[in-house]
Amino acid sequence: MDARKYIRDWFNDFRDTATHEFRQIFSDSGVLLIFFVAGLVYPLLYNVVYRNGVLEDTPVAVVDMADCQQSRRFAREVDATRECRVAYRCTSMEEARKLMEDREVNGIILFPSDFGKKLMNMETATVSVYCDMSSFLYYKNALMGVNHVMLSEMGQIQVERYSAAGYTAQEASQLIKAVPYGENNPYNPAFAYNIFLLAAVLLIIVQQTMFYGMTLLSGTMREERRNYALGLDHGTMINGRGALRTVFGRGAAYWAIYLGIAFYITLIVPALFGMPQRGSFWDIVLLDLFFVTDCVFFCMSWSSLIRRRETVFVIFLFISPICVFLTGTSWPTTAFPAFWRWFSYLFPSTFGVKAYVNMNTAGGDLSTASSLFTCMTLQTIIYFVIASVATYIESIVLKKMDE
Amino acid sequence: MGRWHEITAVARRELRIMRQRPVYFIGSVCVIAFCAIFCLTFFRDGLPEDLPIAVVDNDNSSLSRNFARQLDATQLGKVVKYDTFAQARHDMQSGKVTSIIVIPEGMYRDVQSQRQPQIEYYLNGLYFVGGALAYKDILTMLNLTNGAVQREVLRMKGVNEEQIMGLIQPIQVDTHQIGNVYTNYGYYLTNILLPGFLEMVIIIVLIYSLGMELKYRTSRHLMQVSGGSIRSALLGKLAVFTVLFSAIGLILIVLLYHWMHFPIAGSIWNMFLAIVLMVLASEAVAIFIIGCLPVPRLALSIGALYSVLGFSLAGFTLPVETMPAYIQGLSVAFPLRHYYLFYCHEVIFGSGFAAWWPEVVHLLVFLFLPLSVLKRLKGAYINQNFPIE
Which pTM does this prediction carry? Predict the structure, then answer.
């Protein structure tokens, strides 16, 4: 066969496959729901849900057995912190405990009866904090609020004690803050939950909605025993020869749609909600190109396991929340057990999310994501081979079954 | 034929379907088993150890080296040394290190002459747990260092140890973590993640089962077996699924609070009640979704969106009270939310029936949901007049 005809056929088949896939996508309400409702609305919904990413003014109860000037001041200062608000003053621990069990407060601060006396005697006084561990953010707030006040109160008391011991104010402050420190938390100053989580969730939405949608369609085709490589109505493809053009043709349809969705999710959604966008525009575009390509072949490979249309949800829905943990943005990658680290390499999101976080939210340049880009490229190649082989085998099997 | 016969006939038919289609077994038992293994092994350590913390030591004195060694020796931290801040910052932006500490040039000399050299630290709050814990570790070390310098000076001046303690640390905070003494992330997350996965499985599998009757046009056969009664048809199917899901739920509770010894202040028997109620409520939601929308693929997609959102709206990570008011209201529509509140009362505080009975009522209210769609579902099953595609 002459090479020109081969190339022409190849491109015709490629174009036909892509067009046909487009038509499939837009005539299937289930896929449209996933691509355009889930893909477009879910990012907005998550932004609304996590809009105020910082838990403020956690209610705490104060049990002041000391009832001295210092304890009252301490409680007032705690009330003034961003983290805590003194919602109740109780006369006994039982009362405070009851409030905590009724979830009226999420923490208890107890000043023991010797609090004032110990401070007068220049000994170490203790203040006890009881934290509700049902959410770690309650715990963090109660602990941080009390610790901030403790540190500032301590500074003042130390000045008094040093001057009582005969030090000048200058000497005292030099001693108390022998090594002062400055805090810088440039990317997420208040440890806001939304800034960290949304950056991770956005790309997972891209990956997962593409996976569910594509699998719905390929499940339908399998139910109807159709396969591009067997030939379309007017196509020229014949058994087994069409695997590559099928993979490229189908892939092109999803690639085009999802580039749009990915641009929307990674560039427009953060702008809509005033989320940090510190990266360069073109870096993010480049990331979208790599990530979407990777996702197309990832989805095509895994969807070859699904034989019937709706089973994808039954079997694979649980993987979406797990993907969030596998990105390593919450539980640190260094603490992953080895098995799960390898398992995480199965998903494009493991690399894509980190690249997005590093470049978009931390404002790093391409070099902060270079190794992640390498991993995504490798992943793309491997999944492309798997998808092609799977398509080839499927066409052979279907051909046999037809005969 | 009596109601009882109809129900058992449907249940027998359902068991036959489950034997023929492995997807039911894979989608319920295998998925939950996988999730349980994931949660129990992934967070195995409870708290991460050896978080990489970058130290840029511009001083390189005995004091600064000692500081780095001490930080390295903490359970949470592991020191990675860098020559320049630029390199360290690059690696923090790449997520390779959680934080950076910059020790100023001449720190030792300045401490000696009480010139108060300032240490700067930088945190990456985008890698959340790692960043927050590194922060805690660094603050502790810096305060200890300050204490150590003071102690050194006061000792030289001949102040006795008791007075030194009073001068260095006039106030100390002692913390009691109620419900999770070891601040174990594994306990914290797994307690709600696993029931959350169960809720997801129930909603999806049940919608799938009810939807497939429509898709494969077997619903008329189902109605025949049930003697034309939609109630018998649903009760028969639910009998099988309730046994299956409740068994999985009860095993999860035994797994968590008995075999894995997760801390529980109250009684494991009450948690059995909670999980069974959550199973029933989730089944009711599934019937409601497919009843409102008797188109299998749409119902499944809606069920998937709903159950993924359930994790966020349970409020066990970011508390619901931070969310906008209308979202707080929405959270009530998720069985997992009520399970979480039940869990807070029973597992964290052990405050018993008096505290959690409202959640029981809320979960029972879900059971009325299916009643509103019975007629519609019956119509769809008999007339098969909704599109399959």
Answer: 0.94
